[in-house]
Amino acid sequence: MAIKRSKLRHFMNTTPDETTPSGGETWSLMNTGITSLSINKNPTYLEEGYIADEVGSKQLESLAPEFTFEINVDESDPVSVYLTDLEWEDATLSEVETSIVSVQLWQTPTGTTPNLSYPAKKYNVSISVETIGDEALKTLKHSVTAGVMGDAVMGTFQPYTSTFVEDED
Q1: By percentage, how much of the chain surpasses pLDDT 90?
Q2: Gyration radius of the chain's alpha carbons
Q3: Which pLDDT tens digit goes with each residue over 85-101?
Q4: Per-domain residue ranges for the chain?
Q5: What does the alpha-carbon distance between residue 98 and residue 12 come to, in Å, rounded to a whole number?
Q6: Parallel, antiparallel, or unpaired for β 44-48 and 37-40?
Q7: Is the dihedral of CA 118, 123, 125, 130 positive or negative?
Q8: Which residue, 90, 91, 123, 128, has most beta carbons within 10 Å?
Q9: DSSP symbol at 41
């Protein structure tokens, strides 16, 4: 059975620089103004050919994932406001680090309504607001790349409470 795009949701921590206790992130739904979002895995392969072989071998060696999307600038959307602030401040390095949680809403949840938990991955990312603008008479738009830093953290996410819980394994 096909799975609709709306069943893979993404939430961005839009207050990463604020001093909050662990678990105090502000998880904002990445939705308003975003019509397409992809996670590019950017694989690197180890390719070798051995002297007695007729065909070479190719093995997946590593991944360098990144999120890419365009977002219309909207002063009422926390994700748009956060990204616009990064662009305006010409932020770099640790100033552009935050997290994105990807949630598989098509999987069977645990818990009881309304506190259902779904499988999720938390990615630490470095945000690059690469462009701002668009054609005349159109809504202002950002082109964004969020490069993943390190391994994803597996866990669950409760959309009702906007809470990520890391797996204990």
Answers
A1: 80
A2: 19
A3: 999 999 999 999 999 99
A4: 5-166
A5: 8
A6: unpaired
A7: negative
A8: 123
A9: -
How is residue 45 written in tokens?
A: 């392969």
Six token digits for residue 169: 């394994």
Cβ atoms of residues 143 and 72 within 8 Å: no
The SS3 call for residue 16 is coil
d(CA 111, CA 121): 18
pLDDT single digits (tens) 111-154:
999 899 999 999 999 999 998 888 787 889 999 999 999 999 99
Identify the H or E element spanning 24. none
Distances (CA, A) of 7 to 52, 131, 143: 48, 28, 23
Note the helical H segments in the chain. 78-88
CB neighbour list of residue 38: distance below 8 Å, 6 or more residues apart: 67, 68, 69
Q: Which fold has domain 5-166?
A: Elongation Factor Tu (Ef-tu); domain 3 (2.40.30)
Instruction: Record the tokens describing residue 85, joined without a space.
Output: 């602030």
